[in-house]
């Protein structure tokens, strides 16, 4: 009854221990016994599926080829006859039922008026743990919120009586046309939020002529995401550099061959940040984002941190830059630069640009916002090298905290070529799939049209520094702690009230 | 039974489709078939009344002559015999009944102590959608609230031991006497809040000797508002410039002939702002403020934005200024100037003044407040042209966020000739009709008398720059995001308590 | 049965109308018919008692001789036979019963740890309207709260390793010894809070060797308050200047003869401020603080404002200063100076000092705090006249918002001779009578002892400018309005929780 | 039946009055009659145990030898036969039962993710009065909270592309190796929180190679804490200087002989601060922390303050420094320095360093935070003496408000050698005993490893000033008081909502 040459589920089921641990993924059997202690997500989650089909667990949080990339070829024992494999039963909890109920009640997309709305809906309809993973940030999440707050310290100086009949918010990013000064930045594990994962982004990006930056830790494979692209659609690649440079070389050169147009090397993550909101979730074997943890039930003293550094190299340094230049012709951009000194070094090393970013607040708490660093960088480049921005030779990007086209225009006015938006698109597809991302981009288009007109700029090139007042950008104010006794004694003033209300109160 | 030459309701009723759409307004029949796609408020709202009497829908949100002004004469098919027209039934919802109940419970006017009170009462007694339209502002409404907050960064330096027996807060605005340094600024669609619409303002302005600026988008016609004026009563006109300059010429010259004393050209609205609070309301055909939307159910991709630009010209530019000078002798003032550069240009072009305004926060979010721009303008005019303010040759006006006479006096001390107040008067008549506006102006009089005495100024001319400290005006502070864990651990101090209270707690 | 020559209650009762209005106060009959329209509190409250005994209404809010001072002698019709006067029944409302119940539950005085505590208890046990009168302030009460908040912008730079075995916080005020750098400043209508009114202050001041400033609008007469003083006890007088300078001369010269040591002329009240919280209270004839209103049921158009200016002269000016010098040898101090220019003028006119004050926030809203003005004054006197503070020749006082000895020490370090405290003492006696004030002063003593030791100053003279950092004193910061959508999406971090708590929540 | 030479409980029980008061502590009888008025905690608490065994009351709040150190030898009357002593019954209140129940529900230690968590749990499981004692601070606790808040005004400028494979956060403190730039600072009365008191700290410090500063007011004796140390474990001593310098000499020389490595002389406590939150607790004889009060039921007029100064000398001054040098060779550090002038004096007097500290906010309210003073000190030392920090010859320490390794790294970047942490360790052992402190230190290790990598510093020496932006450190901002009327009128924006939610609301 079983297929020829295929293993039987019964046999696989006997390898269900730490001593011998086989698992099934996408119909193939893998012997992961020796890999248990190397698994970034810890051995526990694997052992739960020892001898069983782990596909549904594996699927949302790994690129399809993750397992084959990370195991020696001989550990793939070949196909299994799926008819003989006992199905893993998935029990739907009451919590999950309630969530699925809420999913049915999503408002129609035309009630979504801004990017905040996607987050509000996604928070209600996403799996709780996916929400925790996407929304969490480092330590006390001060930087995470500062990223957004910093934009509120920048105000417009709009111009009037300019002919605003035709406005055009398209621009060029690293030489490639973009319908707006925004790109979709790299965020990990898209399938946590939606079964199609990052494909949602690829499709909507195509429709709107914006550029997608594909993440190293995508749930979809690079090839799948590039296969899904439309002719002429531009994609960039975000890169976590592997300790094993050959793996990195393979990824980079494959990407270049496939047509990736620029390489964004992440430089702010020598170690993945602790995100306590995420860790606070009860992790058990059902937990799909175990892979992202550097703590939790994984006993840190047993080397989980070491495991993580198995695929992200904490030793990455300026010395590696020539090597990158040697393996690819793609423009190289450093993602995660946080002070002018490093931006200047990147410029002096003839890189193509930098992303002023703190990784969405997920790495170092009290790192400054990208938009604040932008002001410093522009000022110092003027002083040290006499150059101004935007500048095609060396482009400045910013990400983190952006929710409105006005945020983007502030960055552009201050010298950014373009701005990366991440979480809002995750929330858009988590709540509405591809249509959500489509709508999110449409909202941005509408906001750009409106706001270009209102600041008096016909094109992105007309959005100049004098259109903003950023003099407060470096002020990090913390109010003197309140006088609780005085304040509780103070009786607030009250408005006039309706007569009935008044009477009822007496 | 039907009147001679008049159409019958039965016949009109057959033209009830997109293919042939007739409507009745104020007893006349119009063929609007070709106009459907041009209607700024979209075709849907018209089609709902296809073949029917649309007067009660049309009334609160259009000037009486809007329909005849916008349709070719031949599209007016003549009178209908109203006896043959089926009445449109208006169902009073429970919500509306509750509102009418609250209206009965308004406190007597002598319990209204300040302008805030009108807003508090209006919020309770206005139709929900009228409230949404009046109170809404752009994007996250940051600028809307900043307009008021900015005044809180300005503090007084009052003088003492000056004879304050007689104080006089009257002044001159563009040469015309005003009983206070305040004018009623232009706000649209007054009939949403009260059946008499802007007439409430005209009447109260007459009584108190203040100047009313009549809006282009008034619910009442210019002629009605000017007919209602008392002899010698001064009125200004706010102008949205039409793409068809002949329409604008007609409006301007008619206004001048009727006796309008100054023309305030709106320059901050090449496109009408998105006001999401307003859009959030469920819009259906009953919705009276459809006209104000640039989005919502109106499918944007079908060109609603284009429709809006049908009557406000996004192409208005400095090049149009000579033309304005050629068609009228009225003083020209630009309304919506937001930086010193444009104010200086207006001065150099020999205009009569500028209103430093951001349209009540309804257009560009993160536009700075008028009062903040005032400080910048005065400083730069001194530096660039050596002139000081107030200045009869070129007058500075400010609007937005004003609630107290102290706010006005701050603006005057800093160089403004006068201050525009809008929403508070809308709320005053929405809650109490003309008597509300009368009371609002009386409150301002009382506050001016009091506060002139308290700052030590006998007249408006004595309100000088050294009477205020505005050194903080440009500070846009955003607190560092809170440390939620630390704060929730902190146990607040408590007062001594009554003995019983103490016992009960234990 | 009736007394000889005395009027009978029956006869008095017939004069119960506007046409002929007699009232009884302290056993005497007054014809107030012609005075009705002059009464600062309006005629309504008098008419309620027409033909009746008004003593219990009159008592708490007038000095005993107010009625004889304000009426021509012939209007006093002589004594009434009280046995024939129908008693005015006072109905105790449920609200009042509840209040009296709370009064029984006051915590013992040794549970009162700071001045805030008195306010917290007084708020609960005072008549609601007395609370409203004492606690209210001008307009939006911004200045009222700023008065306290301003101290929070000043921080200490304490010194160490100085011998703090003996510390001494006594000082001299205008040459008179005070046990602490604090005086009891003038506040009106003490009997609203406690039947003994300002006598509570006189007694406690005697016990603690502090100086009381007697208010013009005291509920007790000047003579009563001076009679109650201990031998050697120093008292000052606060003066509202009467339009009729002869009344003022009489008051001043009587005070000097009785031994008042200094005259504090109020210069910040050409018109009494509007206090809306107070006005918001429902005023009816029972209302005891009608006298304090300049609005409310009193029809303003009938001239209540004019009535108020009947006893406080808005025409008071620098020209009056020589006259004051001519009628008294007492040192003259201006109370209510709010900028350096006026302080300098007072100095140049050889006055004895100024109180930098905004009348407890009850007059002009957005007036700066006294402590802020102090910094400006000291700086400018140094610059313009080369003198420093404290300075016996010209003394600087500050009042408003003080709650802690640390507040006082900040003012002293910055140059103040002494600080006035008002409301906290009102609350102290309203809650606990004389013992409350005694305790309040004892708390201040304890705080002074402690804090002198902790800042490293043996005496008040050792409290020098370098002990404070007041560089932020002029910063008036208003946060950028919050981003409500972003903030409501943000999910706050949470602590570890007890296991049961955790389970219960799931 | 009773032991030989031992007193009988029956006899002791007869000395139960103020006239003759004996108590039993640790099996010995003491005649404390003459000491009653000298007891810092007042006589009442002693009299409650007159004639009885006071050990369980005495134990948690005194070092074992406190009683013998403070009484003349002849007052120790020798051992009592414990079999004859009536046991003091301790009634467990419902409140205490509930607390013990909560103690059972503590989450496992691996759910504790940060130092905040210990506080959250300790607050729930500690005796209420122990919590009040540990958590309370001076006056309005403004400085207490500012200590933490000040760190939020400092932001990172992290560096990238440095090889972070190996990071090392160990350092040297006064020449002694420490595994991190943190020491456990001195806090009093550890047995209030846990029966093992400060021993918990000694044990965990040993395990992690960090230095413990032993407090004068420890619940455990110096000898016990040093006996518990591991070979080579470094301990410092915090010293309150006794009025009787011979007592201090004895303590210091004993400590040096036992191997204490440095002496931290407290200079910010000439008088112990009032901590009102602590005083607010109902104190009765059961109250274990009576000793810490300087007020409350103890009648202040009877000299409690004098009693307190019985063991801490308010006369300590710079003149004592040579004497300290004469009695010990230990490095001398002043703890509680709060301005650059005193730090410079310490340097000029050749001391080994200073702790910039305000005693955890428990002494002078509105004292600045240590981290703020650090910036001032470093700047002035550069200016006045030309030296930079960290500096082995004169070391700067900071304590107060630290909760994260990022806080510590900010202090290190700004020049601190090391940072003292106090309350978090108290909460750690109050909730979890020694394991709690162990975990707290492990968390800090993890945070240091992570954050060194993220700021780009391989070692503590690489944490340099340019890695932080502290330009806002001196800003003490207090927001302008809110406009309550305006704010309550403002209707907040709302997100899109689920359909059902929407419907339910309508």
Characterization of the model:
Chains A, B, C, D: This is FMN-dependent dehydrogenase-domain-containing protein. 4 copies of one chain form a homotetramer. By secondary structure, chain A is α/β, with parallel strands linked by helices. The first copy, chain A, folds into 2 domains: 7-84, Cytochrome b5-like heme/steroid binding domain (Flavocytochrome B2, Chain A, domain 1, Roll); 112-294 and 309-469, TIM Barrel, CATH 3.20.20.70. In chain A, 37% of the residues lie in helices and 12% in strands. Chain A contains 20 helices and 16 strands. An 8-stranded parallel β-barrel of chain A has the order 8-9-10-11-12-13-14-15, surrounded by 6 helices. In chain A, helix 15 (340-348) crosses helix 16. The first copy, chain A, is globular. The N and C termini of chain A lie far apart (84 Å). The model of chain A is unreliable at 282-309 and 501-506 (pLDDT under 50).
Write the CATH homologous superfamily of the largest domain in chain A: Aldolase class I
**Multimeric state of these chains?**
homotetramer
Work out the helicity level of chain A.
Answer: 25-40%
Helix vs. strand class of chain A: alpha/beta
Specify the biggest β-sheet of chain A: 8 strands, parallel, barrel
CATH architectural designation of the largest domain in chain A = Alpha-Beta Barrel
Figure out the total of helices of chain A: 20
Low-confidence stretches of chain A: 282-309, 501-506
- At CATH level 3, the topology of the largest domain in chain A is TIM Barrel
> What is the domain total for the residues of chain A?
2
What do the pLDDT scores of chain A average to?
A: 89
- The dominant shape of chain A is globular
Total beta strands of chain A = 16
Largest interface: A-D, 68 and 57 residues
The CATH first-level class of the largest domain in chain A comes to Alpha Beta
Neighbour order of strands in the largest sheet of chain A: 8-9-10-11-12-13-14-15
Distance between the termini of chain A: 84 Å
Beta-strand share of residues of chain A: 5-15%
- Using only C-alpha atoms, the radius of gyration of chain A works out to 25 Å
Protein name (chains A, B, C, D): FMN-dependent dehydrogenase-domain-containing protein
């Amino acid at each position: 009854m079983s297929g020829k040459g295929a293993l039987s589920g019964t046999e696989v089921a006997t390898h269900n221990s730490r001593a011998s641990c086989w698992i099934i993924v996408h119909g193939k059997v893998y012997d992961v016994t020796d890999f248990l202690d190397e698994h970034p997500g810890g051995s526990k989650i694997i052992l739960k599926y020892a001898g069983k089909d782990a596909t549904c667990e594996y699927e949302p949080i790994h690129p399809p080829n993750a397992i084959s990339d990370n195991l020696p070829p001989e550990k793939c024992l070949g196909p299994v006859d799926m008819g003989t494999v006992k199905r893993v039963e998935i029990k739907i909890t009451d919590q999950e039922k309630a969530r699925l109920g809420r999913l049915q009640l999503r408002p129609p997309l035309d009630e979504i008026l801004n990017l905040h709305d996607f987050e509000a809906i996604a928070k209600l309809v996403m799996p709780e743990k996916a929400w925790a993973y996407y929304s969490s940030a480092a330590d006390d999440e001060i930087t995470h919120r500062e990223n957004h707050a910093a934009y509120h310290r920048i105000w417009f100086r709009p111009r009037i009586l300019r002919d605003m009949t035709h406005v055009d918010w398209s621009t060029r990013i690293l030489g490639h046309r973009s319908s707006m000064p925004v790109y979709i930045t790299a965020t990990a594990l898209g399938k946590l939020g939606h079964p199609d994962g990052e494909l949602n982004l690829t499709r909507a990006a195509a429709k709107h002529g914006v550029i997608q930056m594909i993440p190293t830790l995508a749930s979809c494979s690079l090839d799948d995401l590039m296969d899904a692209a439309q002719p002429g659609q531009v994609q960039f690649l975000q890169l976590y550099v592997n300790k094993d440079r050959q793996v990195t070389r393979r990824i980079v050169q494959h990407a270049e061959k496939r047509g990736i147009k620029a390489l964004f090397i992440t430089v702010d993550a020598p170690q993945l940040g602790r995100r306590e909101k995420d860790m606070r979730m009860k992790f058990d074997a059902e937990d799909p984002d175990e892979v992202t943890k550097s703590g939790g039930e994984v006993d840190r003293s047993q080397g989980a941190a070491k495991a993580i550094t198995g695929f992200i190299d904490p030793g990455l340094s300026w010395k590696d830059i020539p090597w990158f230049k040697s393996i690819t012709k793609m423009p190289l951009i450093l993602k995660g630069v946080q002070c002018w000194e490093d931006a200047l070094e990147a410029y002096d090393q003839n890189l193509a640009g930098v992303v002023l970013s703190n990784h969405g607040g997920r790495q170092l708490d009290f790192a400054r916002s990208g938009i604040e660093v932008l002001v410093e960088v522009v000022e110092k480049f003027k002083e040290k090298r006499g150059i101004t921005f935007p500048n095609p030779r060396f482009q400045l990007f910013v990400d983190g905290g952006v929710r409105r086209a006005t945020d983007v225009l502030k960055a552009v006015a201050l010298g950014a070529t373009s701005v990366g938006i991440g979480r809002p698109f995750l929330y858009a597809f988590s709540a509405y799939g591809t249509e959500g991302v489509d709508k999110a981009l449409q909202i941005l288009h509408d906001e750009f049209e409106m706001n270009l007109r209102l600041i008096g700029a016909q094109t992105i090139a007309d959005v100049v520094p004098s259109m903003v007042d950023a003099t407060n950008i470096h002020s990090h104010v913390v109010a003197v702690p309140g006088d609780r006794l005085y304040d509780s004694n103070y009786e607030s003033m009250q408005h006039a009230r309706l007569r009935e209300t008044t009477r009822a109160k007496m």
